[in-house]
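Lecture 7, part 2: worked example. A protein chain together with WQD.
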Amino acid sequence: MYYNIDMKILITGGTGYIGSHTAVELISAGHDVTIVDNLFNSRISVLDRIEEITSVRPKFYKVDLCDFSALEDVFQHNDFDAVIHFAGLKAVGESVEQPIRYYDNNLISTLNLLKCMQKYDVKKIVFSSSATVYGDPGVSSYTEDLPTGQNIPSPYGKTKYMIEEILKDLHVADNTFCISILRYFNPIGAHPSGKLGEDPNGRPNNLMPIIMKVARGEYPELSVWGNDYPTPDGTCIRDYIHVVDLAKGHLSALEHLTTGVGVYNLGSGKGTSVLEMITAFEKASGKKLPYKIAGRRAGDLAEFYANPEKALRELNWKTELTIDDAMRDTINYLNSL
Ligand code: NAD
Ligand code: WQD
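Predicted complex, written out as structure tokens:
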């Protein structure tokens, strides 16, 4: 089914990195966007940026999804057609150190959201999952039919797997639900306007935010976690996807929502090594990026990337932007900070 009408969309976690880019794409496509976020890992000024880009300021509620009555109040005062659920804690290493906090935040927030959706008859949801749900499947190219839930390296990743299972059970109980589970690979880049990007509170874990901190002189150098992997240059290979392409994937998922549970990989299908990422950043910035080769990071797989054919076939979506586009937009965003 294709919804050619404007919808009222609730975006949880909509002031965050991926949520804010998705808000821009949705508003630009004519949808009516409301954001709920507790601002734990994002800033209220993101709303100004969204308005500068789209000329529309989304309605905003500073609400913690773990607070059921505050969330219910949002549903009581709005009539949503669909929800895109980004809100969650996402730092992999931190989740190993603080598992209860991660299970508590990510699962309770989702359960509260689903209770409200049931109660207020909102039956369409797009959920932010992750390639981490595949664990260590023994192949490099991931298709959606690979088993999930085995050898997931972190409590964070397990919350994604558990939420996927909760959504599938919900559909078994109520087959009027339309559910799209999007498994992201490695999101990078920024909005080409330079107004939105990833600027996490606290110490980042992911490669690109660390590269940005090295480029700004906040960290002396990047540690490349291992160069003895069985890959052409010895460093790990990942499928990096421009955040604007990823945001557009949500629009496609929303517009193709149908009863059932659809699971889609959102990635480019191409792998890039850590050293190739460094070279691409240096080319875009015109400056050397200081780095050293360090030991392997626990839990890293040598190589994986998406098989994105199902998303093309069923959602009519594929990536259009390149690593070089992502580096250019990241540097543009860096210069605006
Ligand atoms: P982000 O931290 O920038 O955005 C998440 C937002 O959720 C933040 O603004 C945060 O304040 C908010 N939030 C967290 N807990 C909340 C709660 N209980 N109530 C209300 N708001 C809450 O992260 P992101 O990179 O934009 O990721 C968005 C989603 O995509 C997350 O669920 C993440 O796990 C998932 N994901 C991210 C990546 C990635 O590498 N960035 C990869 C795969 C999946
Ligand atoms: C990318 C590559 C590192 C930092 C994680 C989550 C996954 C998903 C995306 C949410 C790896 C190397 C990194 C550094 C390095 N998130 N690296 N030096 O581990 O592929 O995936 O984020 O769902 O669930 O696990 O991403 O950005 O941490 O690392 O050499 O300082 O960069 O070894 O090869 P990863 P990443």
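Residues 134 and 220 are 34 Å apart (CA to CA). The first strand starts at residue 8 and ends at 12. Keep this in mind for problem set question 3.
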